[in-house]
Design brief:
By secondary structure, the protein is mainly alpha-helical. Helix content is 66%, strand content 0%. The N and C termini lie close together (11 Å).
Length: 204
């Protein structure tokens, strides 16, 4: 099925591309959210990913299995570019004259909610990972790709995926062993930090 879909997409078949979107949009969205922790940014990444996929369709191999690794690889690159653009925008805004500062109550409010505190713990832990480690974790753990598929998505050797994932798991496990917070949904259970995953998608 995916081989036929690949050929139709390469040929510029709009219906085939619609089928591609229906099959993998949720998976791309979940991956983008796990990399950005922001719903709105994740939606933007989905749109840009499928625009890039259409633009790059001629480079897609005619033979092969699931198109999910290809799309998640594009989504990873789009996320990198989006984050760079956001940093440039934030730097530009920081240079503008400021009015009187308004107190930010976000931390105070989240501190009152157990779930928010646990989610913050997971996000902090993820924030301490290198970008490459976060990307491998998102692909292999949350999106469920095997090492070979993740390597295909990122354009790196399988051994690199293995080593990055091992480092990411070690760092997360160390940071999430925080005695000040009770064990709960926000901490890792096996391979997944369930508090970070917005939706479950089926592996294809």
């Amino acid at each position: 099925m995916d081989t036929n879909l690949r050929r139709r997409i390469r040929a510029g078949d709009h219906d085939a591309f619609g089928d591609l979107f229906d099959a993998y949009a949720r998976s791309v969205y979940n991956h983008a959210y796990r990399l950005t922790s922001d719903w709105t940014t994740a939606e933007d990444v989905v749109s840009l990913t499928f625009l890039d996929a259409w633009r790059l369709r001629a480079k897609l191999d005619e033979e092969g299995g699931s198109l999910r690794p290809w799309l998640l690889g594009i989504a990873t690159n789009v996320t990198r570019n989006t984050r760079r653009a956001a940093r440039r925008h934030a730097a530009a805004v920081a240079r503008l004259p400021r009015d009187e500062a308004v107190r930010d109550f976000a931390e105070e409010v989240s501190g009152r909610l157990d779930d928010a505190a646990r989610l913050a713990l997971v996000r902090t832990a993820l924030g301490r990972l290198r970008r490459a480690e976060r990307e491998v974790l998102a692909l292999c753990v949350w999106s469920g790709l095997d090492y070979a598929a993740a390597a295909e998505a990122l354009g790196v050797p399988v051994g690199t995926v293995r080593s990055r994932l091992s480092r990411a798991r070690t760092k997360l496990a160390k940071h999430l062993k925080n005695p000040e917070l009770p064990a709960s949904r926000g901490q890792l259970r096996g391979d997944r930090a369930t508090a970070v995953g917005p939706l479950r998608e089926e592996n294809r």
